[in-house]
């Protein structure tokens, strides 16, 4: 998985594609205990989609808090579940316990853990989730929030 496995690491900061640099910078902004989905990151950046963000994270994400960029269903990254779970527990990230008892991997509680890109954390039902989070495949119908100010847009 790129940086996550120690492969395909660019030699220096100038070796990363500009879009990849922006994705990684966004991942670094997510506070401990909070998450953004791949789609949230794409929307925050105003371009591409969740698959492109996922590709960047797979190739280059090992040097940033990759566990804070998650799937829209809250499932942990396949192959990295144990490492991610250790980070989530250390940071106090809200988790949903799986149905069916022990031995099953929990999921991220997106309603409680999702970050809106602003100074505070997105809370369930407060409309603070990133724009687009209320519709489409990521979440059911609900209030659409507004995303925080992008770091490159200035004060």
Short description:
The chain has 155 residues and is mainly α. It has 5 helices and 4 strands, in the order H-E-H-H-E-H-E-E-H.
Architecture overview:
By secondary structure, this protein is mainly alpha-helical. The protein has one domain: Winged helix-like DNA-binding domain superfamily/Winged helix DNA-binding domain (Arc Repressor Mutant, subunit A, Orthogonal Bundle), CATH 1.10.10. 30% of the residues lie in helices and 5% in strands. The chain contains 5 helices and 4 strands. It has a two-stranded parallel sheet. The protein has a two-stranded antiparallel sheet with strand order 3-4. Helix 1 packs across helix 3 and helix 2 packs across helix 3. The longest helix is centred in the first third of the chain and has 12 residues. It starts with 17 loop residues before the first helix and ends in a 42-residue tail after the last helix. The N terminus and C terminus are likely disordered.
